[in-house]
Amino acid sequence: MDEEKRITLRLPADLHAWLAAQAKSARRSLNSEIVYRLEVERAAAVTDAESP
């Protein structure tokens, strides 16, 4: 990441709890888990856009 931007994110409590559990399981911070999942989705979207 060249530059970082700070945002405020509101999540439903159940989604927050699920993400926090996933982050703990993967030994990542909650922030890192969210960034990881967004990057995976972005890569999938780019791959889908490139497919015929």
From TrEMBL:
Q: Which InterPro entries match?
A: Arc_rbn_hlx_hlx, Ribbon_hlx_hlx, Uncharacterised_HicB
Cleavable signal peptide:
none
| Pfam families assigned to the protein according to its UniProt record, in alphabetical order | HicB (PF05534)
Please state what the protein is called. Answer: Toxin-antitoxin system HicB family antitoxin
